Every structure is written in structure tokens, then in C-alpha cells.
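Because showing beats explaining, we think one record worth quoting, sequence and C-alpha cells together, and here it is:
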Amino acid sequence: MKAKLLRYDMTKTKNRKRTDFEVSEQTESAVIARLEKIHKGEKFVAFHELVWSEEEPEEKVEQKIVEVFTGEVKYFDATKGFGFIRPDIEDAEDLFFHVTALSTKEISDGEAVEYEIGYGPKGPVAIKIKPLE
């Protein structure tokens, strides 16, 4: 819920104005509780104006497009906990991966895998690695 316009007084500050003020529910008590939380140490005194927004809140739906790639394990050292994947994409550079990116504990050099691309401190890395069946 949003209050479109809000004019109010607190104990120490007078004639305050806020717009598009989000609250948990459309009640004066919800607005007062939020104002007292924002203005720490002050108490609410009075509303001069309170106008509720008429628009329905939009549900934020975040769509994430995930691209899955294929390649083969070029090198993996279980002792050191890292390896490299050779992507099936022509002219693509090998991708580093950490053992924590593996969906299985067993993987070997030359094995076909699918993976997503994430970003590490040194650039692109393979993540969410699964053996191809």
C-alpha cells in the first residue's frame, strides 16, 4: 500500500511532507508506526493531509533468462578443487570452475557436461555443472 501524499507533524519536526510512502496496510496506525520508526525518538503528533494511492500495487515478477551451455571437462584436479571446461562454442576460451560448482562429486577429464556461466574475480566461470546423460 502507498500513501500518495502525506503531511504531518512529529514532536521535534513540524510540517513534514512525504510522497509515495509505502506501508504494510492502508490504515493511519500503519502510517504512524512507520513514521515513528523513521523518526527515531520522536512521537507522531498530527496529520495535516493523508491521500491514499488509488493504483493497485504492481507485483514485481522478475524473469531471469538462464542460458545453458555444453562442453567437456578439459582438466579437473579433485585434490586442488578446480578444473577447466572446454566449451562446445567455436573459438570460446576455456572456463575455470571450482569444485563447489559441480552437481556431482564424480567428474572426469573428457566428460561431456552442461553448465551456466557466472562471473568470478577474474572473469567468466562455469557454474551449475551437470554431466550430460
